[in-house]
Design goal:
- With 373 residues, this protein is α/β, with parallel strands linked by helices.
- It is built from 14 helices and 17 strands.
- The protein has a single domain (20-367), classed as Aldolase class I (TIM Barrel, Alpha-Beta Barrel), CATH 3.20.20.
Length: 373
């Protein structure tokens, strides 16, 4: 593996973002209508390889139901406004109206409201009664406190999502979450992340996770690189974790762990390249927050934006341009890769001659760092 000398005392591996690579057509093409973009994790089948990020600007109980009926997998943030307030309409409206200078301190105050276990139960009940797959997310820090409430409420898929999640958290102050024991004792499949390296992902796979989220602070509303100096270019991260999946498949005697690109997937081209690098699905935040029917009202933020001690994200204005259905399935009204995301994936797969997502993971890619060429 080629390393670059940064200075005499430090070397670093060259890593690539989605902007740095491109997919290469092969000798065969197909009709887009004959391409399958469905995927399955554990016993749950989805028409499109899209997870909606557990962020208050993206997923509300209502949008979760809409996304589920469109064939996606929505994930509700169980530490968000819907589990802190009976009706967070006023809080959402206020966040959308805040002056940028005041946004972070005021959001810290809004999110200081305690999480209410009875609201976790109620929100998950809403999803279950609507007949969609019930998925909820907690951070590693809150999982030990609220996991029983989540499981008792009848969740289908449990997501443990943080800026970074490791299988080996060291703490001298408190008993850390033992992921392996936790997943083993749980009766529902667990998706966990983020991870951004081969080794970290392999250790997460060994805990028994059904899926691994790939990414570290790469989303549109993150400032992790600025605040912590940490960043993982996504093309390399996904390819590294896909290699861990391949090796774990051999090590475990055939257990397949799904790889989900989470962060830096803002356009349809990014989705195409994420799958080409080995992702089974993508988790979308900003791409769906642009919807006219998204709860953020044209604004987007994640839990990092209101961290009580060290914010590593911001509330950004994206504007509301199209419905969720148009963003996913078209018709596209812009030529910038922000609408008809699924149609673009189908067309890319058809243009390169692949019939399903797992096949498309084998497509040839090239390093092409000239954006727009």
């Amino acid at each position: 593996m080629t390393e670059i000398e940064i200075g005499r005392g430090k070397r670093g591996r060259r890593a690539y973002s989605f902007d740095d690579i491109a997919v290469v057509p092969s000798r065969r093409t197909r009709d887009p209508e004959e391409v399958s973009v469905s995927w399955q994790i554990d016993a749950y089948h989805f028409d499109i390889p899209v997870m909606a990020a557990p962020m208050d600007s993206v997923v509300s109980p209502d949008t979760a139901i809409s996304l589920g009926k469109l064939g996606a997998l929505p994930v509700l943030d169980l530490e968000g406004l819907w589990t802190r307030y009976e009706d967070p309409t006023a809080q959402l409206a206020e966040i959308a109206s805040l002056d940028p200078i005041l946004a972070t301190p005021r959001m810290q105050e809004i999110y200081a409201e305690p999480i209410k276990p009875e609201l976790i139960t109620e929100r998950l009940r809403q999803l279950r009664e609507a007949g969609v797959t019930v998925a909820g997310a907690l951070s590693p820090q809150r999982t030990q406190q609220h996991w029983k409430t989540v499981v008792d409420a009848g969740v289908d898929l449990f997501v443990i999502r943080g800026t970074t999640v490791s299988a080996e958290h060291v703490s001298g102050r408190a008993e850390p979450l033992n992921l392996k024991r936790f997943i083993y004792e749980l009766d529902v499949p667990v998706i966990v992340g983020g991870a951004a390296s081969y080794t970290a992902a392999l250790h997460l796979m060994r805990t028994g996770a059904a899926g691994v989220l790939v990414g570290f602070g790469g989303g549109a509303a993150h400032t992790t690189r600025t605040a912590l100096g940490i960043h993982a270019p996504m093309a390399s991260a996904v390819a590294d974790v896909a290699a861990a999946r391949r090796d774990y498949l051999d090590e475990s005697g055939g257990r397949y762990v799904h790889v989900i690109a989470d962060g830096g997937v803002g356009t349809s081209g990014d989705i195409v390249k994420a799958v080409a690098c080995g992702a089974d699905a993508v988790m979308l935040g900003a791409a769906l927050a642009r919807a006219t029917d998204a709860p953020g009202r044209g604004y987007h933020w994640g839990p990092e934006a209101h961290h009580s001690e060290l914010p590593r994200g911001v509330r950004i204005e994206l504007g509301a341009q199209s419905s969720i259905e148009e963003i996913l399935f078209g018709p596209g009204r812009q030529a910038d890769g922000t609408t008809n995301l699924v149609g673009a994936l189908r067309r890319a797969m058809a243009t390169t001659g692949y019939s399903d997502v797992k096949e498309f993971q084998r497509v040839e890619v090239v390093v092409s760092p000239y954006l727009g060429q």
